[in-house]
Amino acid sequence: MKLTDIRDNEGAHKSRIRVGRGIGSGKGKTGGRGVKGQKARAGVAVKGFEGGQMPLYRRLPKRGFHNLFAKELNEVNLGRIQQAVEAGKLDGKSVVTIEALVSAGVISKAAPDGVKILGVGELKTKLAFEVAGASKSAVEAIEKAGGSVKILAAAASQA
Asked: In terms of domains, do 28 and 88 share one?
């Protein structure tokens, strides 16, 4: 076999239709666009138009809203933090911040507004936290273990 013998399978390549090349071609005169009007012109796309009938997107009721003031936070449970400490990924002596949690692999990437500690699970290690927020149960559990929680001012002023 030689390079010159290589051919594509029969019917694998379909040649394009050359539009507007005389009435004998079958795609001449109007070029398959019908006759006159808006859609016969170039660069027109009438999406969502249903021929004067009320369009579907206007027939259906509106629902929900987007809160402009909602905070994007990473939520981390105490049990997950305890696992990281036991695995040796999180240092119990240094302050636990969002950067420390990312480097320990507790959270994959930092949310824009910080991290919030939630109280699910048990914390046995004494840890100092500097976070955007913490639930009441999480604060109680951290202080019971002998640790401390500092809520960062930047996140608290947005609340």
From this structure: no
